[in-house]
Specification:
The protein is α+β, with helices and mostly antiparallel strands and about 90 residues long. It has 3 helices and 4 strands. A hairpin with a 4-residue loop joins β3 and β4. The two termini are about 30 Å apart. Keywords: Membrane, Transmembrane, Transmembrane helix.
């Protein structure tokens, strides 16, 4: 059995992860700038209010070095829509 690289839709999974990451960042940046156009209200809150998702920081002291691990994401509906669109286009074409 040969070792074959993982593929998704004929392309590498690493490239798919990069596309999802870039589209998420682009969605966050676009939502930040577009949110200034909308007046305050429920529509603006729904599309542009971010929800914090993540893992709290964990600090490990090794005596000679200290390492801190953690992850936090600010997710908006607009960013999720852009990621879903990018994934759809990835598998469609």
């Amino acid at each position: 059995m040969k070792n074959r690289p993982m593929h998704a839709g004929g392309r590498s999974v690493g490239l798919l992860a990069l596309v999802v990451l870039v589209s998420g960042v682009a969605g966050s940046v676009i939502s930040y700038f577009v949110s200034g156009v909308f007046p305050a209200g429920p529509v603006r809150d729904f599309f542009f209010k971010s929800v914090g998702v993540g893992i709290p920081t964990v600090t490990v002291s090794l005596g000679f070095a200290t390492v801190t691990f953690g992850l936090s994401l600010a997710v908006t509906v607009f960013a999720v829509l852009l990621v879903v669109l990018a994934a759809y286009l990835w598998f469609k074409f």
